[in-house]
Amino acid sequence: MIPSVGSETNKKKKSRGHKYQRKRLRCPKCEYRIIDEGINTTSLLHVMEEGDSWDADYYTKCHNCKSEIGLKKIE
Length: 75
Ligand SMILES: [Zn+2]
Fold this sequence. Notes:
Elements: E1 22-26, E2 33-38, E3 43-48, E4 58-61, E5 68-73
Antiparallel strand pairs: 1-2, 3-5, 4-5
The structure holds zinc ion (ZN).
Zinc ion binds at residues 27, 29-30, 32, 62, 64-65, 67.
């Protein structure tokens, strides 16, 4: 019943058509998405076990399964 003419102009906040230039990296253990990487970046993911000597550049934690994930940037 209320004409929605004036409110239409305020609804232009949908950022459609914008390409999401990122790749999603998932936990090797549970597939949970832990981090995004740039489209031109290639990374290696590795689940860090205790005493693991795998040499990573970055370390993060999976919020889902709590595993420690090592990240290595290759490119
Ligand atoms: Zn996980």
